[in-house]
Specification:
The chain is α+β, with helices and mostly antiparallel strands. The chain is 40% helix and 24% strand. The strands form 5 sheets. Strands 12, 13, 14, 15, 16, 17 and 18 form a 7-stranded antiparallel beta sheet that branches. Strands 3-2-1-6-5-4 form a 6-stranded antiparallel beta sheet, with helices on both faces. The longest helix has 52 residues. The radius of gyration is 36 Å and the shape is extended. It starts with 8 loop residues before the first helix and ends with a helix.
Length: 666
């Protein structure tokens, strides 16, 4: 890995000039890695800065460590390459295949990193995204372009931060020139370099705050040159006030320099999230004389995090749902609680019966539920818009004259704002998810997207449940018909072979049909997709063997339908032979049936072993006298023919092998 480019004196000096190494997290960088992770659909995104002996992460999502040794750095390879580096499979690339982050936890496999170039052209590190699965396709062209654009945004943020640090240093130097020059200098520098970030300075001796215009706007206060700090502190919600600074914590030097908390704006009572970064101003003797810093409105980021967490929870709630009621309850709760609405739910629409049916919905405390059956004519204009297939977003329902007669319905329901997401099937509107509010509100784009995402997940889950219900009904019908067919075959065989001379052959035929029927019963319990191996064994052998004479041992394993039918016939023949000629022909005999997975072979292989003991010695039948049963046994598991039979003095020993992929194929 050694390269003069990595350890270049000019590169390290350029990085050092930003004074950013080992600094606390900052929202601006956190926002960028969050966007990079979402754009590239990876679990990990990092802002990585490469120095002599380590790479340090200014921002990280999905990666616990804050730094790694230089020997583990993939970003260093990007600096050596001098351009955006994409490695589809780190385990295959000679540069990274021995990297301990690849060969051990967290087992990273995919990497894409865009260089962070200073204005002088020095490569300081990368904005990178990482996945624990290889990506043969790498990134799309659009994702690569976006990653490189975000890397430039990281550098712009670092430049702005560098200038801000420089501005704070200048402001501290100007402190000796007088209070007015200091305040004016901080405002000017911050306005030029921090953009829309509010700033403040508190004189500890007088307890007077000088906020910037932007800080006043964030807190909803009139613009003024000075305020008592309490004017801002009282706007912090009671639950978060311990996070904000106070006169006592500022004076004692215990006020946190980094904090995130919620406020209620003075002008509109809106709930907002702010991030505050501050530091103390010291005099020539090192005593605290002031408290200065920045305030950033991070409401959009916080709400986006809440919505994302709600979607993750919803996915967990509906993933294994088996009823529509569970899905509707989870989706309605996610909509209502996350968006702070008054009512949320799902309504099924049936134009044939002219009904809008809501069986359950989430409501805020004190809000009347809308659940019940309603006529579609009450929502005629609303339905007309929804049939176009797009979400309906209304910020002020009473002012939406296009709703026509629907307005009286909404007035009775106390709905003054709403978002409605339609469900169309083959062009017909069949249902809607909705969220209501009792007050007019301007719905943010992220809120509309959230409703759409919740509805998409819920509709997909509903479709899955309905498909499973339909499949279950179909399976039951097929099962009924197949049982009738097997019964008919048995009846025909009984009548046709009633006068046959070979009675044992007739009985063997009937027993084989019975074994197939048992295998069918086990498969039906899993909708004909798979069946537990142990269940198949117990169902088939119960026809022949007392459970006390049978030892079973093996891991949980799901068999595909083909393997289930093959195994049922194989076990039937083995048990029949054991009863006629083997260990089960005497009272002291028993059978051990064991199975496991052999992973030492090129392909994982299922190994099934049948071992008889306590009975007469096993003798190999004459090949020219072998019947259908012997041929079925030699066919093996899933028809592979991989069979090893040993005729021992202690009894028959049989081993059957088949590839795991073949046995589990459904």
């Amino acid at each position: 890995m050694a390269s003069l480019d990595i350890f270049s004196t000019s590169r390290l000096a350029a990085l050092d000039s930003y004074q950013i190494l080992d600094t606390p997290p900052e929202p601006a960088f956190d926002d960028i890695v969050m966007i990079a992770r979402e754009v590239c659909h990876t679990p990990v995104a990092l802002v990585s800065l490469v120095v002599e002996e380590r790479q340090w992460f200014k921002a990280a999502l999905g990666f616990e460590a804050c730094e790694t040794p230089i020997g583990q750095s993939v970003c260093a390879h990007a600096i050596v390459q001098g351009s955006t580096l994409i490695i589809e499979d780190l385990a295959q690339d000679p540069r990274t295949r021995d990297n301990t982050l690849v060969t051990a936890a967290p087992f990273i496999r995919f990497y894409a990193g865009a260089l962070l170039r200073s204005p002088e052209g020095e490569s300081l590190g990368t904005l990178c995204v990482i996945d624990t699965e290889p990506r043969p396709q790498g990134l799309t062209a659009a994702q690569t372009t976006a990653l490189e654009a975000l890397a430039r945004q990281v550098m712009q943020t670092m430049e702005m931060r560098k200038e801000m640090v420089r501005g704070v240093a200048i402001a501290r130097a100007n402190l000796q020139l007088g209070e007015s020059l200091r305040a004016e200098g901080i405002r000017t520098i911050t306005a030029q370099e921090a953009g829309r970030i509010g700033t403040f300075e508190v004189d500890l001796a007088t307890n007077v705050m000088r906020p910037s215009a932007e800080m006043c706007r964030i807190f909803g206060l009139e613009r003024a040159l000075s305020y008592p700090p309490s004017a801002f502190e009282t706007l912090v919600v009671p639950e978060d006030r311990q996070l904000a600074s106070s006169a006592s914590t500022r004076s004692s030097g215990t006020a946190s320099t980094l904090a995130e908390y919620r406020i209620r704006r003075a002008d509109d009572d809106a709930l907002r999230w702010v991030a505050r970064r501050a530091d103390y101003i010291r005099d020539g003797n090192g005593n605290h004389v002031g408290f200065t810093g920045t305030v950033h409105d991070i409401t959009d980021r916080k709400l986006a995090e809440v919505r994302q967490a709600a979607l993750v929870t919803l996915g967990d709630d509906v993933r294994d749902a088996t009823t529509m009621a569970v899905i509707v309850d989870a989706a309605s709760r996610a909509l209502g609680t996350t968006l702070g609405g008054s009512r949320a739910g799902y309504g099924a629409i049936d134009f044939a019966s002219d009904t809008f049916r809501t069986t359950q919905e989430w409501t805020a405390p004190g809000v009347t539920s809308f659940a019940g059956v309603h006529t579609l004519s009450r929502f005629a204009h609303t339905l007309q818009r929804l049939q176009l297939g797009s979400p309906l977003v209304v910020a002020n329902v009473p002012a939406a004259s296009w709703l026509g007669p629907d307005l009286s319905t909404y007035a009775a329901m106390a709905v003054k704002a709403q978002i409605v997401a339609p469900l169309l099937r083959r062009g017909t509107l069949v249902g809607v998810f909705y969220v209501h509010d009792q007050e007019p509100r301007t719905w943010a784009e992220g809120e509309v997207e959230f409703v759409h995402a919740v509805a998409d997940r819920a509709y997909a889950a509903i479709a899955k449940v309905e498909a499973e219900d339909q499949q279950r009904l179909l399976n039951q019908e097929l099962s009924h018909r197949l049982k009738n067919t097997l019964a008919l075959v048995q009846a025909i065989a009984s009548q046709t072979l009633k006068t046959a001379g070979d009675k044992p052959a007739v009985q063997a035929f009937r027993n084989r049909l019975m074994a197939l029927s048992k295998a069918h019963d086990v498969l039906l319990q899993e909708s004909w997709s798979s069946a537990p191996l142990l269940s198949v064994i117990e169902a088939v052998l119960a026809l022949h063997i007392d459970r006390a004479r049978l030892d079973l041992n093996g891991p949980n394993l799901l068999l595909g339908p083909k393997a289930v039918l093959s195994l049922s016939m194989l076990l039937h023949e083995l048990a029949t032979n054991a009863i006629k000629h083997g260990s089960l022909s005497v009272e002291t005999g028993h059978v051990t049936l064991a199975w496991d997975i052999d992973r030492t072979t090129p392909e994982p292989t299922v190994v099934l072993r049948w071992l008889e003991a306590g009975g007469p010695p096993a003798t190999e039948p004459d090949r020219d006298r072998q019947g259908m049963g012997s041929r079925l046994i030699r066919t093996g598991l899933a028809g592979t023919g991989d069979v090893h039979l040993r005729y021992l003095p202690t009894g028959l020993s049989a081993e059957f092998r088949a590839p795991l992929s073949l046995v589990t194929d459904n």
